[in-house]
Amino acid sequence: MTAEQVIEARHSVRKYDSSVVIPQEELDDILRLAAKAPSSWNLQHWRFLVVTDQAVKEKLLPIANGQQQVVDASATIIILGDLEADKSARPIYEAAVTNGYMDERVRDIMIGQIEGAYKTNPQFARDEAIRNSSYAAMQLMLAAKAKGYDTCPMGGYNRDALIEALNIPPRYLPTLMISLGKARVEAYPSARFGLDELVIQNQF
Predict the structure, then answer these.
(1) Which residues 6+ apart lie within 8 Å of 37 measured at CB?
(2) Which of 23, 45, 114, 139 lies at a 20 to 30 A Cα distance from 38?
(3) Distance (Å, rounded) from C-alpha 114 to C-alpha 15?
(4) What is the rounded distance in angstroms from the CA atom of residue 83 to the CA atom of residue 46?
């Protein structure tokens, strides 16, 4: 499919064929494509907590308010935002210098910007974690559709219970759950606003 066809074809699926197992190679390819998403300063603020073990998926069911897709989907992926993404700056930019993408002067300027931003505003790290991990989440859903799989983003879950159940370190903030698999029942149609409702030209 073209990029346009993938976007048009992606819908949120809530009923999955629980017999489907995604080959690890295909799952890895979806995650690899998701990780190509853009991010502020290229800090790649996302981590993917991939749940395929049935017992662990069952543990997620009450945490996700009984949403059956977390159990029936081939995988439930928890998108994590990195609250300490500034710690990734040095290895990322050192690699950029080593590979000839930038010189040491630019590296030092960029790292200084990042460290300054993260030190001066405690809310900044949280905002960046949510914003940038959301880019990867959307890209994951489009990559999955391009590979013939269905997804559904879920925000309805108990974050504290999820952190406790899956031993998520304080560095990472769960920002979204995504079910991934093959639809047992196709997604139902949804009404969408036209551009006349959505687009503001130049200013209000």
Answers:
(1) 46, 132, 135, 136, 138, 139
(2) 23
(3) 42
(4) 10
Predicted model pTM? 0.94
Look up residue 190 and give its amino acid: S
Q: Which fold has domain 3-82+131-187?
A: NADH Oxidase (3.40.109)
Residues in the chain, pLDDT under 70: none
